[in-house]
Amino acid sequence: MLRRKFLWGGSEEKDKINWVAWDVVLGSKDKGGLGVGSLYSLNLSLLLKWLWRFKNEHNSIWRREVCGIHNGYRKPVIGLEKKTLPGVWFRIIKAIPELVDIGFELSSIFEIKVGSGENTLFWLDDWLGGGDRLMPGFLCSLIWIKKKTCFVADRMAPNKLLWDWKKFPRNPTEISELCLLSDLVKFTTVSEAEDKWRSKLSGDGVYYVHDLRRLIDDKVTIPTLNPTIWLLIIPLKINCFIWRACMDRIPSAVNLARRGINVGNTSCALCNLGTDEADHFLINCPSTATAMGWIFNWCGIPIQPFSSVSDFINFAANWGHCPKKRRIFIVICYGLLWCTWKARNDLVFNKVHISLLKMADSVVTMVFSFIAHRGNFGKINWANWLSCPFNIL
Ligand SMILES: [Zn+2]
After folding, report:
1. What's the CA-to-centroid distance between 73 and ligand 1, angstroms?
2. Nearest 5°: phi and psi at 110?
3. What positions does the domain Reverse transcriptase zinc-binding occupy (predicted)?
């Protein structure tokens, strides 16, 4: 709630309408959000880091402390906690079923690399991979074995298995299960190294909180049509405006009327023909289309019809083959939409009519200042810029 108030409180609008669903805002930029990330995903990912550390920091004092309190040495991961002792460690382990509920099995996040086998439970840890533990998969083993909490090191020696039978397998079912089990484990060899839990989410096996956090956010947030293109060259308010305009979440007359605000006339102030909504006055309005034609002509790019703001931005994001030129073109498109919005607001609220020529001029000047001051293109020649924006390269 605090973060929500902070984000919307920074907006220029005083009406405090939450224009974009919070679950969209939280999503990654790839999914059309602002990459804010949910606290829910951060919390779960941080909790899991403790489990990863527990499994890798075998000799740390805190780990010994936890094991001492919860008798955790010979317990499977879920069960590491003593249920009569609620507290921090209890909460950490409870993160595991929560993750499973939203589709993240532990085996999809970690793999166990057996070294000496002294910290990996033979029957209860998923050390063979694939998400299955040997118990309870091998039902007969429940009858045979003396100790289900034995470690891999207790059962495996170089080139042979060390069984500790309660009852020696005799009938055909038990013997075939024993053969199958021997086949499964025969490629594993124990060594001097320590057992490790490696993250499957990173290239180096280290567990990073942001890896899991991003995956959880992708699951629990709402994706939109286009990825968010957030340009550092451009002021925050323009980035935010374009992001919202692509989703038709700006205070146009039609949108305000939809939210029960009496705005009187909902026709487009620029042409009086269409309606005052983003896709019209930013893209399809005859006045806007004329200014857009000039800007495209200046860029040397053939104009084409666009159905919506999102379609227009999508075109810019995929235009051409040169990344530098494309970046300049996207900034120009952002500038064009922003100046059109300003011109529309001047007309609606101040009754000031800005000519199309002046509006197009302001796009050229404004984008030049962005590129010159924040674009990392070196010194830019104004005359070159005026002839064609890509001549500055
Ligand atoms: Zn219009």
Report:
1. 72
2. -125, 150
3. 226-288
